[in-house]
Amino acid sequence: MSGATPGTPKVLRAMNDRAALDLLLTHGPLSRTRIGKLTGLSKPTASQLLSRLEAAGLVVQTGTSEGRPGPNAQLYAVNSGAAHVAALDVTPDRILAAVADVTGATAGEFELHTGRGGDGAVRQVLTALDGAVKAAGLTRSDVHRVVIGTPGAFDPNTGRLRYASHLPGWHSAALLDELAAALPMPVEYENDVNLAAIAEQRLGAAQDHENFVLLWNQEGIGAALVIGGRLHRGWTGGAGELGFLPVPGTPLVRGVARAGSGGYQELAGAQAVPRIARSLGLDTPDEPYARAAATLLARAAADEDDDPLLAELIVQTGRRLATGLASVAAVLDPELIVLSGAVTAAGGEPLRAAIQAELAELAAPRPRLVLGDVPHRPVLRGALESALADTRDEVFDTSR
Questions:
Q1: Would you call 368 helix, strand, or coil by DSSP?
Q2: Is 379 exposed, middle or buried (0-12, 13-18, 19+ CB in 10 A)?
Q3: CA 382, CA 169: separation in Å to the nearest integer?
Q4: H-type helices in the chain, by residue range?
Q5: DSSP type of residue 244
Q6: How far apart are CA 144 and CA 102, in angstroms?
Q7: pTM for the structure as a whole
Q8: Of 55, 83, 63, 193, nearest to 141 (Cα)?
Q9: pLDDT digits over 320-331, tens only?
């Protein structure tokens, strides 16, 4: 609310406007009377507020209430076309892109298979973004903000991508400048696991929690750290790169930056699950290691025949995951640990219970462990939520 003095009528009107818009986002279409009751405003003030927001293009009339006692009332809703945001989820093999309107509804999606070569990162980003924009029936200039999620993190001190040597074409020192020059809207970059944590914090298992850890286990193993309600990224953006954590049970890995892996990744990452299965005499699927790990754990979690080998696969995987989490619990003492990523999700409740039981033996703090509650594309959803939060702060600020 730049340019306005706190406590002035202009600021108070803007605060009431934002409160009403947030209520409409939460509840959907509301009548003038209902908005007045929820905000504590008088009917005349609520009417003035809605007229102001309608003139600003932020709300629209959506029909009338029906089936209730008394006369039908005019309903108002947030104008979904007031702003649009985009999000990209980048992996070595593909880019998922999505566009959402200001209410959070997805308007268009696109998937670009990139492989490990071909076009450079800038061209890939533009192709994926334009695909989602086209699917939404928009143009690139209609997008207010883009959030891009990648493995690793862009070092705020150098601008280079770190902790993601497996992501080809994204390590140029000039990449961020090139993307800024190619895109007409603000672009923000965030670690993919941090975005999954944002999704859980806004929509999933970590709602109403200000101190939690999200453990991600998919192609790589990592964590997002939320302290006091805010993401903790660290000096170089590397907070939560748990895959590099030295842990007992595996040889000490040196030169982790060159190796692209570390002790915890080797002990408990996706590649460890097929190895455990083979050591138990279980058949392993002929699939990439992350998919094979998810297949094996899903089979074990769904086992109705009480196969002792499948049960042992869950126990050993849970024991290994708890080994690294014990260090996290000892340092951060989080209230909650959210288990996310395709590999961990495949193990479901049996794996969660195994980790919880082992962690109780290894760590003095006793955080509660829960499964992630945003199973569908949590990184992409978190990127959209991040973009929406900043865009709403701008577009919904009627004091500007």
A1: strand
A2: buried
A3: 24
A4: 9-27, 32-39, 43-55, 121-135, 175-182, 192-203, 256-259, 263-268, 272-279, 289-301, 308-332, 342-362, 378-395
A5: G
A6: 10
A7: 0.91
A8: 83
A9: 999 999 999 999
Contact call for residues 98 and 132 (beta carbons, < 8 A): yes
Q: What are phi and psi of 146, to 5 degrees?
A: -125, 135
Q: Per-residue pLDDT for 66 more than 80?
A: no
Task: For residue 76, list its beta bridge partners.
Answer: 30, 61
Torsion-angle region of 101 (φ positive above 0: left; ψ -120 to 50: alpha; else: beta): beta
Total H helices, total E strands in the chain: 13, 15
Tokens of 71: 């006369």
Contact 86, 65 (CB under 8 A): no
Distances (CA, A) of 314 to 17, 126, 273, 321, 369: 52, 42, 9, 11, 16
pLDDT tens digit sequence for 39-57: 999 989 999 999 999 999 9
| Tokens representing residue 119 in the block | 């076009």
Q: Is the separation of the CB atoms in 391 and 83 below 8 Å?
A: yes
CA proximity to 53, closest of 29, 23, 79:
79
Dmax (CA) for the chain in angstroms is 74
Q: Checking DSSP bridges between strand 336-340 and strand 74-78, what pairing results, if any?
A: unpaired
pLDDT value, residue 256: 76
Residue 327 Cα to chain centre, angstroms: 24
Task: Give the separation between CA 184 and CA 182, rounded to whole angstroms.
Answer: 7
Q: Helix, strand, or coil here: 328?
A: helix
H/E stretch holding 113: strand 106-113
